[in-house]
Amino acid sequence: MTTRNGALEPVFCTIVPPHVLDQLSRAGDPDVSAPARRSLEHDAYQRTRRRLTTVIGATAAAPPEGAAADQPHRTIYDTHHSQDLPGDKVREEGSKAGSDASVNRAYAGLGATFELYLKVYDRHSIDGSGLPLDATVHFGEGYDNAFWNGEQMVFGDGDGKVFLDFTIPVDVIGHELTHGVTQHTANLEYFGQSGALNESVSDVFGSLIKQYALGQTAADADWLIGAGLLAPGVHGTALRSMKAPGTAYDDPNLGKDPQPATMEHYVRTGRDNGGVHINSGIPNHAFYLAAKALGGHAWEKAGQVWYDALTGGDLKSDAQFADFATLTAKAARERFGADELEAVQKAWEQVGVHTR
Questions:
Q1: Is residue 167 within 8 Å of residue 155, measured between CB atoms?
Q2: 183-217: buried (b, 16+ CB within 10 Å) or exposed (e) per residue?
Q3: Cis link prior to 72 (omega < 30° from 0)?
Q4: Which of 356, 336, 334 is CA-nearest to residue 345?
Q5: Which residues are bridge partners to 255 per DSSP?
Q6: CB of 176 within 8 A of CB of 147?
Q7: Which residue of 50, 136, 242, 283 has the smallest Cβ count within 10 Å?
Q8: 24-48, pLDDT tens digit by residue?
């Protein structure tokens, strides 16, 4: 499938950034460094595979014949610790939960993501047309990541020393599937500020999916991405904090969370596609500030504004922070009114991004 921006970007998106795995790969403890090195190798292979698939062309999945677009079509696979995707089918739509907690969590997380997009934004699956949702669990040996490869979700079990099972946080599932929403709408390029926006949008809706599932208001939410993923003994609470970027972890093995909260500390780097997982902290913080100012359930106003900006057709694939901020201001004014516009503009101003 293509978008108005042309062919789909060959994006391979992981929840744990490369700079984190690179840091872990240099740890003195082989129980930490070895799984991180294997995970980096897995990711490099999958990234190359994704590029080749994009060049060659892949057949897009379609809903089963006669299936309703307002119902999810989930299939869960198990690779049994191999790297052969998708693996063996272990659960499909409508079947009962089994004894494998990873399978059950993946199934529930796909459903929670589908539900938010359908009930709140009237979006039928991630492509808007009822795309089946596929996921694979138990990928690789101690694989320290989860990813969206343009076609499906994949979850590792973690090494047990730094990371636990990647199906545990529902926002991780929502984050990765939202890369699919972006892929089928604005198709944001995965580099620099547009790449950071790509990552931030996934964090925003990953957090909203968790909040929606828990019935939380903006004031109640923890605004953490990946809470519950870090193993006992790790000095940290999550992978990222939207409320306070740069404070999610400070650990001897992980290092310190490098995310900036404002443009004053924007990180210029050639690594991680220009720091897409680092500088995403800036638009993440803008969303948190807007949601907090607007109050209530964040998916109702702030989330609607961000969704309108992402899917409205005016967001270019190479958009910068100011471009996206300007579109959110436009959406706030058109969808709601002056008070909401002011809240959104002030949120961006607080992080050093100015609307036009």
A1: yes
A2: bbbbbbbbbbbbbbbbbbbbbbbbbbbbbbbeebe
A3: no
A4: 356
A5: 251
A6: yes
A7: 50
A8: 999 999 999 999 999 999 888 776 6
Cα separation, 155 vs 14, whole angstroms? 10
- Which stretches does DSSP call E strand in the chain? 13-14, 74-78, 88-92, 133-137, 146-148, 153-155, 224-225, 240-241, 250-251, 255-256
Q: How many CB atoms lie within 10 A of CB 155?
A: 30
pLDDT in tens, 308-353: 999 999 999 999 999 999 999 999 999 999 999 999 999 999 999 9
Alpha-carbon span 243 to 7, nearest angstrom: 35
Distance CA 260, CA 284 (A): 10
Residues 6+ apart with CB under 8 A from 57: none
Beta bridge partners of 136: 77, 154
Q: Which two tokens stand for residue 354?
A: 């100015």
Q: In whole angstroms, give the CA distance from residue 235 to residue 214.
A: 26
Contacts of residue 199, defined as CB under 8 A and 6 or more positions apart, other chains included, come to 13, 276, 277, 280
Annotated catalytic sites, by residue? 176, 277
Is the model more confident about 6 or about 143?
143
Q: Is residue 50 pLDDT above 80, yes or no?
A: no
At 224 the pLDDT is: 98
- Whether the CB-CB separation of 72 and 110 falls below 8 Å is answered with yes
Provide mean pLDDT across the span 123-127: 95
What mean pLDDT is predicted for residues 142-163?
Answer: 94
Task: Show Cβ contacts of residue 46 under 8 Å, excluding neighbours closer than 6 positions.
Answer: 12, 147, 149, 154
Per-residue pLDDT of 277-296, as tens digits, reads 999 999 999 999 999 999 99
Determine the Cα–Cα distance for residues 188 and 152; give it in Å rounded to an integer. 18
